[in-house]
Amino acid sequence: MPSAAERTRTLVQSTCSALLVVPGLDAARAEPLIPDSRRVGPDGDVFLEFPAHSPAVRAATHAQGDDLTAVLEITDVAPVSVPHRIRGRAWISGWLTSVPGLAEPGRMMLRLEFGEAYVDDLWGADDIDAEDFRDAAPDPLAAHEAELLQHLAASHDEQVRALCGLLGERTARARPQDRPSAVPVALDRFGLRVRFIEGRSSCFDARFDFPEPVRDVTGLRRAMHTLFEAASH
What we know:
elongated; seven-stranded antiparallel sheet; alpha+beta; 10 strands
């Protein structure tokens, strides 16, 4: 399974929505502090790009030394229609400073020096320390996950639903029409997570691990073919 640090790096470097919270700024009067881009540097610090007139930039520019604390809040929402669409949240807190010269004119790059982080997602809740975050890599499928899940949901509904047959004797013996509906809700290099929906108010998740971690979309196709073949028998 992916480590907590890997899951958090994946969220930071994905297209999930993110909000920077800077204590002391009047949230009621200021526009939401949503970075235009974000990336992780080699030391594990998070670099956030904002318009030069952003309140976050003004606060960081006028801060004395490392006195300005901030929290980056990330929310991960499933890219498919499914009950309970929020898949996870992550929080990275640290010290905010401006880094002149790293952005285009009219923009400013801010550095969030990593202090601590916490993730609460489909895998569970975990703290992440600085070294683990620095050394982790985002999941190689992250850039394609939304498109792949949408494709599976739209074009392979019956095959995804048939995975229910791998869950045990009761579901394996169920007639296809009696099986719960199924939505692929998460995908990473280790496997596929499917949300099975029974009626209007009941659902459960099942995890289908690949024989070995995949490195790219080509390896994923082979892994998915193996998975669907197993379900068909």
